């Protein structure tokens, strides 16, 4: 059951930036860890980043460290993924997901994804 909504994807040139947003359609995100995942054509889904419910803990895939930043604004019930220095290999559908048991737990609610294309 899809309960999250992603936005902010689009077409950007290499080296550019995008900010993705994740909100929940029918529940409050603030009590849940939220992760960002991506899936490129012909590849398996991979974890990009995760933030704990209170925002005190974050985690990143090695391939995005130093370029992407995850954050959350619980007052707006939104989780963000700021993506800088984008590369063509970052092209994928990006999904957000939430779970009650931290970033090492299972993610139970997912969004439909937002397309990110990095191309000149």
Describe this structure in words.
By secondary structure, this protein is mostly beta strands. The chain is built from no helices and 11 strands. The model has no long low-confidence stretch (mean pLDDT 94).
Strand content: over 45%
Helicity, in percent?
A: under 10%
Let me know the number of strands: 11
- List SSEs in N-to-C order: EEEEEEEEEEE
Which structural category do the helix and sheet elements fall into?
mainly beta
- Sheet with the most strands, sense and barrel status: 11 strands, mixed
| Count of alpha/pi helices | 0
The backbone outline, from C-alpha atoms, is globular
Q: What radius of gyration results from the CA coordinates? A: 13 Å
Mean pLDDT: 94
The N- to C-terminal Cα distance equals 36 Å
Poorly predicted runs are none
């Amino acid at each position: 059951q899809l309960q999250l909504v992603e936005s902010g994807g689009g077409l950007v040139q290499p080296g550019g930036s995008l900010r993705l947003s994740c909100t929940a359609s029918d529940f409050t995100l603030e009590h849940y860890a939220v992760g960002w995942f991506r899936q490129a054509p012909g590849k398996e889904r991979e974890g990009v980043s995760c933030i704990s419910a209170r925002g005190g803990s974050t985690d990143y895939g090695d391939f995005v460290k130093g370029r992407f930043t995850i954050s959350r604004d619980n007052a707006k019930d939104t989780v963000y993924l700021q993506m800088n220095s984008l590369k063509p290999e970052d092209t994928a559908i990006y999904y957000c997901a939430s779970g009650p048991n931290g970033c090492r737990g299972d993610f139970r609610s997912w969004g439909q994804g937002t397309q990110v294309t990095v191309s000149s």
